[in-house]
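User: Before I run my own analysis I want an independent prediction to cross-check against. Here's the chain; please return only the structure tokens and, at the end, one sentence I can use as a sanity check.
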Amino acid sequence: MTTPPLRVERRVGQRFPYLLATSFRQTSDGIEGVGFTQDLSSRGVFFLTDAPLTEGSEIELTLRMPSEITLGQSMPVRCKGHILRIVRPNGTSSIPASSTAQAKIGVAVRLECYEYLPECTDSHVRVAALHPRHEEEPGQTQSASRRLA
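Assistant: Structure tokens:
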């Protein structure tokens, strides 16, 4: 009887199983998308998406890094790194067939640098401030954007 070969763990940081929303941009061709993390460490992330990303490409990810990773407060960060591996769905996953995660691709990223993003300090952002103001025609009722302001 033979024993299975020993696998050496190459990861430096502890991985945490976090389900976090992330947005990303592959810098080589500008592909943008969203996904969610499966696990996360200070040096890497594995996330699921349906975007057609390319192994070896540089990528920027934006997510809310939890306190276990920052060793302080959780905060929004933009991370830059390289895609190490793409895992295509093959139908042999233990995820139930009804799950949307089965149709997603897995993306392993080695994180190389972080940029801490400012917190939004105003919790009551005006919706109207996101759009240019349109002057009302005489006789019109008050617009929805002004009522929300």
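Sanity check: Residues 144-148 form the longest helix (5 residues).
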